[in-house]
Design a protein that fits this description.
Layout (H helix, E strand, L loop, with lengths): L2 H8 L6 H11 L6 H10 L2 H16 L2 E5 L1 E4 L4 E2 L10 E2 L11 H9 L8 E4 L9 H14 L4 E4 L2 H10 L4 H10 L15 H7 L6 H13 L4 E7 L5 H18 L2 E8 L15 H14 L5 E2 L3 H4 L1 H7 L6 E4 L22 H9 L4 E5 L5 E4 L14
Parallel strand pairs: 1-10, 1-11, 2-5, 3-4, 5-6, 7-8, 8-9
Antiparallel strand pairs: 11-12
Helix pairs in contact: 3-11, 3-12, 4-12, 5-6, 6-8, 7-8, 7-10, 10-11
Length: 389
């Protein structure tokens, strides 16, 4: 961030003294408190929090914006749980719009990418009692036989808690079994909002916030990194968002095992919370910015472009975001079924690079663990088959 932007904040006589104090802490790389985080939500205008978040983003990563080449496997949308915000899952008794992939169908999805330079497969879905720990361990092993180099990021804490409990194992035992068969990292889904009173209203029957945190802490201690998420913009209040991020920040202090934080916008199409209006664009950008400011020990903040759309994703790069996820392909339905802007989420590498360059950011292809694979700043796509790269 230009020095003049920092100076303009510190020299603004009309700025609330408490906000100025927060700005000074940010510019000195000092941690803000939960009370200060709440104050940012309550009083921080979008331009103010944007300047602070961009300062942190550029101090950590300069102009770099990361992405990877990935695809999704969603084994089933049938689920034993009944989350009020979910447009994706179907209860076991519901047959309409439901699916359950066989092992062969999952492996055929992997084979479709043979010879393609994808680096990650993301496996998440509903919680189906027939698709247990042993079944998925076998799938992981066969995926690695097909593509030993492919990073497998699989199973939310909600899926893991159920599978491990059904298998009568401890969390550590279940994770070790999956790791031995090829699991490389965990996604961040299922966190929703950690506040127990909110959780009771929107997802009472699935794993608790404490169980979510325990599963990720156990994974980190076993050398399995993970992501973290927060579902925002529904019935939660600002203090619930800060409480959620405080618990994540504390866990990251203990383990350092989180790769990235992904704020997930509540979408209201075809679910039990459809009467609740979705958050506005300004609030989405403020939330990204405050997350970047608050989670000082997280290396990355990700905007999931299929959920928020390409234009909002571009805007987010000035509000603390440094990662746009990946090329995705059209294999994910979790947010398209909830009414996201991207109904057929797929971008070629060239399209994603151009999306980043359009807002004068520097595209970097990464692997799942943020190792740099290709610098696209001066990359020439001439002669490339851009439909597949």
């Amino acid at each position: 961030m230009p020095i003049s932007s920092a100076e303009s904040i510190l020299q603004d006589s009309n700025l609330d003294p408490q906000l100025k104090k927060i700005a000074l802490k940010v510019f000195k790389s000092e941690r803000i408190t939960p009370t200060e985080g709440l104050l940012l939500y309550e009083k921080g205008e979008i331009g103010f929090v944007g300047i602070l978040a961009n300062f942190i983003r550029e101090k950590k990563h300069g102009n770099h914006t990361f992405f990877n080449r990935n695809f999704h496997i969603e084994p089933t949308n049938m689920c034993v749980f009944d989350c009020k915000f979910c447009s994706y899952s179907r209860l076991l008794k519901q047959k309409e719009d439901s699916w359950e992939l066989s092992e062969k169908q999952m492996l055929d999805i992997v084979r479709k990418y043979e010879g393609e330079p994808v680096t990650e497969v993301h496996i998440v879905g509903g919680v189906h009692p027939k698709l247990g720990l042993a079944f998925f361990a076998g799938v992981l092993k066969k995926i690695k036989e097909i593509r030993p180099d492919l990073h497998i990021k699989g199973f939310t804490a909600v899926e893991l808690e159920y599978m491990v409990r059904k298998a009568k194992m401890t969390i550590a035992e279940g994770l070790q079994l999956l790791k031995d068969h090829g699991l490389d990292s965990l996604p961040g889904g299922g966190a929703e909002i950690f506040d127990e009173s909110i959780r009771k209203e929107i997802c009472d029957d699935k794993c608790s916030s404490e169980e979510w945190l325990q599963i990720h802490e156990t994974a980190h201690k076993m050398g399995i990194p993970s992501n973290a998420t927060m579902l925002y913009g529904h019935i939660e209040k600002y203090e619930h968002r800060i409480d959620h991020m405080e618990r994540l920040r504390a866990l990251q202090d203990r383990t350092g095992g989180f790769n990235t934080f992904i704020p997930l916008k509540f979408r209201n199409k075809d679910n039990q919370m459809s009467a609740i209006a979705e958050s506005a664009l300004v609030e989405d950008l403020r939330n990204y910015a405050i997350a970047r400011i608050y989670l000082d020990n997280f290396g990355h903040i990700k905007a999931y472009w299929p959920m928020i759309g390409r234009i909002t994703a571009q805007l987010s790069l000035n509000f603390g975001v440094d990662d746009l996820d990946g090329t995705i392909d059209d294999t994910t339905k979790i947010y398209t079924m909830a009414g996201s802007e991207e109904q057929n989420p797929a971008l070629s590498t060239q399209q994603l690079v151009e999306l980043i360059k359009q807002v004068e950011r520097h595209p970097i292809e990464r692997d799942t663990l943020y190792n740099i694979l290709t610098d696209y700043k001066e990359y020439d796509f001439a002669g490339q088959n851009t439909a597949t790269v």
